[in-house]
């Protein structure tokens, strides 16, 4: 049995897309259903735990229950890998991402563990389609060694209007946030191509890219480098170069208002891996400033709680203080 929490996330020009959190047990049959051929499933997180606190915090009763929550920030896992201008190495900017911790989350002798992240498994099974089922103790091959526990799945049904499916696309992040994926996702990706996305935000606004799925050819034993790879660059400097399969969400933050994402492939023909899927949005408050005023702007779908507007302007008073304060943006 499943307890479902429906979250709603708003976009200025494209309405809503549904974000759902579901809780159940190790033998619960989760049914991820978008109820439309014009929407596809995007996986944000998947967690299994036998910690008693997990059951208490999330109130997992293993019986039918439903409640709705409006205006919740969504998209990225609490344990995502973050890459920005402060934590990459200019001399070694290549990151090979894979399942480095997948088999070390439990103890085979006494089952003394707290949490297993299985997002990559449900992503492989469900991402990019509009209906999918998942049972932890059937679809996770090590589950018989683990025993009973609670299962948490977080996913969205994303409409085609905010899912970019083509290459060489200009994405105006100041007008909307959304998702982009490689042609052929999730069945395959095309070899011998250079697929590009050019992202531009408002002045003084950073860009946040979250890679929700990376499934491309890894480095073979006889190779020195990725033949198929993702490259994220800003002003000619590579922030991220990666290949392989992602085990967690990978976030890239720009320093300025532009980013380029390239998917470069040397493999021949169609390669039988999913490709890539990422989410993009503006990140930041400061929009414009000079000596007399400063203009702040919330991201799309969010407002300042005291004005219920995306914009807030503060004036400089007596040349030494601003005539107000900035509160955290909240969902509309």
Automatic annotation (TrEMBL):
Cross-referenced Pfam families: CUB (PF00431)
Top-rank taxon, per record: Eukaryota
Residue ranges of every copy of the CUB domain listed in the record: 167-283
The keyword Endoplasmic reticulum belongs to this UniProt entry's keyword annotation: no
Residue pairs linked by disulfide bridges in the UniProt entry: 226-243
Entries under InterPro entries matching the protein: CUB_dom, Sperma_CUB_dom_sf, Spermadhesin-Link_domain
Record's keyword terms, sorted: Disulfide bond
Protein name: CUB domain-containing protein
